[in-house]
Amino acid sequence: MSPPAPAALSYPFATIPESGGVVRVAEGIVWASLPIPFTGLRQVNIWFLRDGPGWTMIDCGHGDEATRARLLELFESALEGRPVTRLVLTHFHPDHVGNSGFVCAHWGGLLPVMAQAEWFAANLAVRSAYTDAFGDRASFHALHGLAPERAAQFDSGSARYAKGVQLPPAFQRIAEGQSLRIDGDEWVAIRGGGHSPEHISLWCRARAILIAGDQILPTISTNISVWPTEPLADPLGLFLDSCRHFHDIIPPETLILPSHRRPFFGIQARARELLAHHGERLSVVLAACAEPRAAGELLDVMFTRALDGHQLGFAMGEALAHLNHLVCIGHLERLPVEHGVQRFRRRPGAPDQIDPSR
């Protein structure tokens, strides 16, 4: 019988590694941290897994010169004279793939291992056809009621994907259920949903370790956004499904290695916290839509802290994710566009509280 799931998270490491330093989290697994230029997140975790004569590297940080210099220092000081022989990328976001072209070239033409949808998304994004399609995003935000002064703040304050990402010319695909053999251990790919198109986490059951990426984070909730390319999508539904899936399949004694903040134990507790958090957010949005409301009109309802331009884009995506999910589960209706703005209204008989735990 498995031990009972802990009621709260616990953290086996007191601090995040300092710049240039590393922490050994388990035999043959080294943790490094790199700074990133985004408000709130501050840093991203990089993992090195000893792999025969070399290392498998998980994610590679934001693609700027200062970060590349830190990577070179890590390669020199932390890898025991062994090369990186494989690079695995959890998803396409710039703090995870930014240096992939640099790392692959530095170690002799590696092919990064990543999900196909993440590779396609990264290539669209560096060509300003996805996350950097700011004309399309501005029109989308206007349709969904973002105030002009906030639209100007978003336009001037958003970080450009292409400035922080250098991709290699080709990749090696991994998909849900496939596994990588790393130093004799089997690491199985688990697909997550909601945060990115085909996010991959790696689970080693024998070692009781999950490299979670951004799918399950401690203390913060990963961004869940609707994008102009898929305006009716339900990414929040996908994320909630993923939380329930991780809750059910990952044993409670598993050490979780997230992409941000510290490693932790207690994935069941964290999955329940995330489900409860989004249930509370959905309930707030549903109550606010007693009268027709647009996503831009809900920002001050959903987010009480000040938002910079980059965060405004995430906030609009997150507001729409909650609105679309409430439409998908039948509690809101999407009204016809009026005066150029799309609004949503609560359906008669909708509950006061949303509980996505099951």
Please describe the structure with a list of short key phrases separated by commas or semicolons.
358 residues, alpha+beta, Metallo-beta-lactamase, Chain A, 10 helices, globular
What does this structure look like?
The chain is globular, with a radius of gyration of 21 Å. A six-stranded mixed beta sheet has the order 8-9-10-11-12-13. The chain has a five-stranded mixed beta sheet with strand order 1-2-3-4-5, covered by helices on one side. A two-stranded parallel sheet has the order 6-7. Helix 6 packs across helix 10, helix 7 runs antiparallel to helix 8 (267-288) and helix 8 packs across helix 10 (309-328). It contains ten helices and 15 strands. It has helices at 65-78, 94-97, 100-106, 116-126, 134-143, 148-157, 235-249, 267-288, 299-302, 309-328; strands at residues 22-26, 29-35, 43-51, 54-58, 84-88, 113-114, 172-173, 179-182, 185-192, 199-204, 209-213, 255-258, 264-265, 332-334, 344-346. The model has no long low-confidence stretch (mean pLDDT 95). By secondary structure, it is of the alpha+beta class. The chain has one domain: Metallo-beta-lactamase, Chain A.
Q: Gist?
A:
This protein is of the alpha+beta class.
